[in-house]
Amino acid sequence: MADQYISTTVDSEITRYYLEQYLQNKGTKPQYDEKINKALQMWDERPLDTDNLKRVTTQFSPDFATLYFVSRIYINPENRIAQQSFHSHVTALRTQRVTEIFHIDEKFTSYLIVFVPGYAYERDPTTGADFALQRRVMGQAGLETLLVKTDEIGTIEKNASILVNELTRLEKSHDKIILVSTSKAGPEVALAIGKLMTAEQLTHVKAWISIGGLLRGSLIADQALKWPKSWFAAIGFFFKGLSTDVIGDLSTQKRREVFAHLHFPEHILLIQYVGVPLSGDIGEHVEGRYKDLREHGPNDGLTLIADELIEGSIVITDVGLDHYYLDREIDLKTLAVARVILDELERREKGKKSDHSQEEGGVQKARRHHS
Question: What's the burial of 107, exposed, middle or buried (CB within 10 Å: 0-12/13-18/19+)?
Fold first, then answer.
């Protein structure tokens, strides 16, 4: 499904049928076909957002809604091309892995990959929020990387300002920057480039990859603000030396309101790399939160998946991964996502040059005609 091999358990018989039979055009149960057809005629005409996916969840099941989400994403031509390219690169890199050395084409080495880390990235590097693996792999492949030193327990607004200052500084030395963020860093980047900086100030930023971005907050944060969970959260954060301010900062009420007023420069290529777990993929590290969110629709164990999306962006889904993206091939997938965005940037650059050449040709013809 969507160029991905799926091997897991699902939460209902009709969900299994939808995946194994319906989506493969191998319908064998007319009663299921009729029910699914009738539902999709309605849902396919509606936005792929949190509210509608919750309704699909209620009508069928969380796993059904999750698979429907992946299917709808894949229908979009740009998403489908990116998805196919992603898996093609993963396959090629998997073959190349015997050398353990990956190389990026020299034409891409002019890009600076700027990583914006997630929450408590220094205190708990085991989460991968510091992008240590990604920075190492990309550096070995020949790409220049930089980690923005945000306040690991600071507010989204504070870290957005830090990022603005860093991008302003980098403008003097780098004219091709790709931003990469994860989790809480997602809304930090969104605020910086969607409100705090103008398109003119961001001409050197060419793309942004958001990985599991909490762009519209998390219902887990909403729950932690209510008694008695707020009490347990306060104790837990206290003993870890962390501030509970992050909970209110990531509430859906606050983040959705902020996000609704953001406007991203058209020249910045936006890509979301979205982990999409099914119920059979959930591990102990995220099981409790996943179950807390199930009734609200497809989620990755920390946020609702549809809340990660930005209108007009390119979306790459990875079925089976939750919010922590624990995968033995995450190094390959890191490079594969990078190649997708680099290839797309190159394609767009060639398109601009072609358009410019045609315009110049038209001007020359007009001049000759005038003569």
Answer: exposed
State the pTM of this model: 0.91
Q: Which among 184, 164, 194 has a CA at the least distance from the CA of 259? A: 194
pLDDT single digits (tens) 285-302? 999 999 999 999 999 999
Rounded Cα distance, 57 and 64, in Å: 7
pLDDT for the residue 232: 58
Provide the CATH number for the domain formed by 99-330 in this structure: 3.40.50.1820
Domains of the chain: which residue ranges?
99-330
Other CB atoms within 10 Å distance of the CB of residue 360: 10
**C-alpha 46: how far from chain center:** 22
Contact between residue 212 and residue 325 where contact means Cβ atoms under 8 Å apart: yes
**Measured distance CA(281)–CA(289) in Å, rounded:** 14
pLDDT band at 368 (very low <50, low <70, confident <90, very high): very low
Burial 261-288 (b: 16+ CB within 10 A, else e): ebebbeebbbbbbbbbbbbebbeeebee
